[in-house]
Amino acid sequence: MDSQVAVALALSLVGGVSTSIGALFVIVNKTPSLKMLGLLQGFAAGLMLSISFFDLAHNALNSLGFLKGNLWFFAGVIFFAVVASFIPEPTLTPTSDVKGRKKNGDEGDKDIMKKHRRQVLFSGIVTAVGISLHNFPEGMAVFLGSLKGLRVGLNLALAIALHNIPEGVAVALPVYFATQSKWQAFKLASLSGFAEPLGVIIVAYLFPSSLSPEILEGLLGSVGGVMAFLTLHEMLPLAFDYAGQKQSVKAVFLGMAFMSARWEQPLLFSKCHEFQSHCDVS
After folding, report:
1. For residue 39, what is the enclosing H or E element?
2. Per residue in 44-83, pLDDT tens?
3. E strand or H helix that includes residue 32
4. Alpha carbon distance 164, 48 (integer Å)
5. 156 has pLDDT over 80
């Protein structure tokens, strides 16, 4: 296996495992803190926006020019907008609903309770399918980012991994309520997350590792468009719902500051190295 594919596969596995971590929140604690999930989603949104605009889109504009760079970027936006229109929205089953249904089932007719469980189980399965389809282009993004360099791939993988934790909760919570099985909830959530490394494997055979620099920069610009659409269309609305607008916005800027600090470290190291080399020559 090519080393670049191996690196991309390893990074995408981080995203897959993070979906399992979300499922563990449900298994360990039946009533996960929606506010904490919202703040986590806001932080991940900040990471994604920084990567999309300050790294991927910025590099595409510099390398390809204003017109071509924008065309690639908005091609990614349109592509994922079309994909998202066919994918069910991942939503969390409110914990108050779960409790209320349990209470009604204890006091009311068992047939009605079974119907509720079937409905909730179906919603969990639909959410799992939607998230699996949703994770596939994320695997593409990690692979293309890894072709550009380890730093780009690692940054994308980190942001996507944080984003996948609430998705794991969104799958596991209704499945656990419907089946009362921790294993079934964990298994279904984990399977939905591992569509991401599958995306890497498939795309690795579609795109040669020796892509021309111009095509690679264009594809990465499109990845920036995909990530920007994903952030504004899905991540921010969920963060606002769970943690409130004010707290979520703070989390977004914290994520952006964190990503800026990560970029500054290699830059400072490079400058220090150049200064040291200059002093040695003198």
Report:
1. helix 34-49
2. 888 888 888 988 899 899 999 999 999 999 999 999 888 8
3. none
4. 13
5. yes
> What is the greatest pairwise CA distance in the chain?
88
Contact, 136 vs 196, CB < 8 A? yes
Q: Which residues of 95-128 are buried (b: 16+ CB within 10 A; e: fewer)?
A: beebeebeeeeeeeeeeebeebbeebbebbbbbb
Mean of per-residue pLDDT scores for the chain: 77
- Cα separation, 278 vs 274, whole angstroms: 6
pTM as predicted: 0.65
> Quick one: how far is CA 282 from the chain centroid?
49
pLDDT band at 210 (very low <50, low <70, confident <90, very high): low
Are residues 93 and 173 in contact, defined by beta-carbon separation less than 8 angstroms? yes
Spatial separation of the C-alpha atoms in residues 30 and 57, rounded to whole Å: 40
